[in-house]
Amino acid sequence: MEKKINEKRSLLREAEKMNNNMSPKRHGRRGGGFLTKIIIILLLLIILLFGGYYIYSKKFTPKVESSVSVVMHQLSFCQELVTAKYRYSDLVSIRKSIALSKSISIIKYTGIIRIGIPDLAKSDFDIYNGGKGLRIKLPDVEILGNDIVEQEVFDESHSIFVPITIDDVFTEIEKAKENTLEELVDEGVLEEARENAKKIIQQIMLSAGFEEVIVS
Q1: What is the DSSP string of 43-100?
Q2: To the nearest whole number, what is the mean pLDDT of the chain?
Q3: CA-to-CA distance for 140 and 138, rounded, in angstroms?
Q4: For the segment 130-189, what is each residue's pLDDT rounded down to a tens digit?
Q5: Do residues 146 and 155 touch, judged by C-beta distance below 8 A?
Q6: Do 149 and 160 contact (CB within 8 A), yes or no?
């Protein structure tokens, strides 16, 4: 009986020894698994960082560059922008006399005054908010033209001794044109044309895809 008990005790001791010998190996495996997990997590973080940077650079940088191209295209496409146009008619009376000889010429003419920006490509602009916003400063508005589109002789009476020449007619019409233009400028036509230009450019750029457009 004692012999069997001793044999059981010996078997228990052998089992404990085997258990002790296997325990460090298990701890070693756990330690190795933990290190592997850390390496995998670090690799994933590096991949996420580079992936995020790549996506950011692709998503936002080209957006700003493409926005610049859109602005330049729209400005160059418009180029000369007429924002105010006025049609007017007037009479020019030319009278000449020497002694009893007289010449009279009354000419009716129609002109068109065009006011706006001669070259929009000279505008300064700044793109912000990742290509969603645009600030643009326009060049000053100018008189683009003051041209005669219709002209007819309303009444005339010529004397061979007092001729009315083409130069006489041209000079008088030019004076009348300048007077009409000065009156319009005094009435604030340049300011009106500039406000119209701001509204037009703002609508063009909003239609081009910008969410906010500030024009000055």
Answers
A1: HHHHHHHHHHHHHHHHHHHHHHHHHHHHHHHHHHHH-SEEEEEEEEEEEEEEEEEETT
A2: 77
A3: 6
A4: 888 889 999 999 999 999 998 888 767 777 778 888 888 889 899 999 999 999 999 999
A5: no
A6: no
Q: Among candidates 143, 144, 146, which has minimal Cα distance to 176? A: 146
Residues of the chain with pLDDT under 70: 1-34, 42, 44-45, 48-78, 155
Which residue matches tokens 């009476």?
Answer: 157
pTM tops 0.85: no
Tokens of 121: 């490509």
CB 162 within 8 A of CB 96: yes
> If phi over 0 gives left and psi between -120 and 50 gives alpha, with beta otherwise, what is residue 150?
beta
* Alpha-carbon span 133 to 13, nearest angstrom: 81
Determine the Cα–Cα distance for residues 87 and 183; give it in Å rounded to an integer. Answer: 14
Task: Determine how many CB atoms are found less than 10 A away from the CB of residue 202.
Answer: 17
